[in-house]
């Protein structure tokens, strides 16, 4: 068997890099300074509110045979407000109410009924109807 000699590895001297042959420097991205927009102060705007004032509303109903008549509705928490009977059989009461639409009924001797002279009505949630007064 023959012995094979391995040749010693030769050291290769490093090449000198001249400025001409040097690789171009890699550009690093620099963050541009961020501009912060100045905070604008809120400007006041003047608004004009229309204040709707409460109005005196007259409720009346003809019922000469009734012993007592009242009106109850959303404007008084459904607590009957007594009405006064005139000589002509018309019951009247004046109630101060803020503008809006209100459901109501008359109470004749304890019996709750819609206002027969007012065609504006909505379901009362109990199978009947309530009258509606628009102020």
Could you please describe the fold and organization of this structure?
The chain is built from no helices and nine strands. The chain has 135 residues and is mainly β. It has a domain of 80 residues: Immunoglobulins (Immunoglobulin-like), CATH 2.60.40.10. Strands 2, 3, 6, 7, 8 and 9 form a six-stranded antiparallel β-sheet that branches. It has a three-stranded antiparallel β-sheet with strand order 1-5-4, with no helix packed on it. Strand 6 and strand 7 form a beta hairpin. The model has no long low-confidence stretch (mean pLDDT 82).
Please sum up the structure shown:
Helices cover 0% and strands 33% of the residues. The protein has 135 residues and is mainly β. It has a domain at 55-134: Sandwich (Immunoglobulin-like), CATH 2.60.40.
Please describe the topology of this protein:
Blueprint: E1 55-62, E2 69-73, E3 81-82, E4 84-85, E5 90-97, E6 101-108, E7 111-113, E8 121-123, E9 129-134
Antiparallel strand pairs: 1-5, 2-3, 2-6, 4-5, 6-7, 6-9, 8-9
Envelope shape: elongated
Radius of gyration: 47 Å
On the 0 to 100 scale, the average pLDDT is 82
Structural class category? mainly beta
Question: Could you list the spans in which at least 5 consecutive residues all have pLDDT below 50?
Answer: none
Please bin the fraction of helical residues: under 10%
CATH-level-4 superfamily name of one domain: Immunoglobulins
Q: Give me the strand/helix succession.
A: EEEEEEEEE
Look up the CATH topology of one domain.
Answer: Immunoglobulin-like
How much beta, percentage-wise?
25-35%
């Amino acid at each position: 068997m023959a012995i094979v000699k391995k040749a010693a590895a030769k050291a290769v001297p490093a090449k000198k890099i001249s400025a001409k042959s040097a690789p171009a420097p890699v550009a690093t991205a620099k963050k541009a300074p961020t501009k912060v927009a100045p905070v604008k102060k809120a400007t006041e705007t003047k608004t004009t509110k229309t204040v709707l004032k409460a109005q005196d509303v007259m409720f009346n109903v003809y019922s000469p045979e009734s012993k007592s008549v009242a009106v109850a509705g959303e404007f008084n928490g459904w607590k009957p407000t007594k009405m006064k009977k005139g000589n002509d059989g018309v019951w009247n009461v004046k109630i101060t109410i803020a503008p809006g639409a209100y459901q109501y009924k008359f109470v004749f001797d304890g019996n709750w009924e819609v206002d027969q002279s007012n065609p504006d009505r909505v379901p009362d949630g109990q199978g009947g109807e309530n009258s509606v007064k628009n102020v």
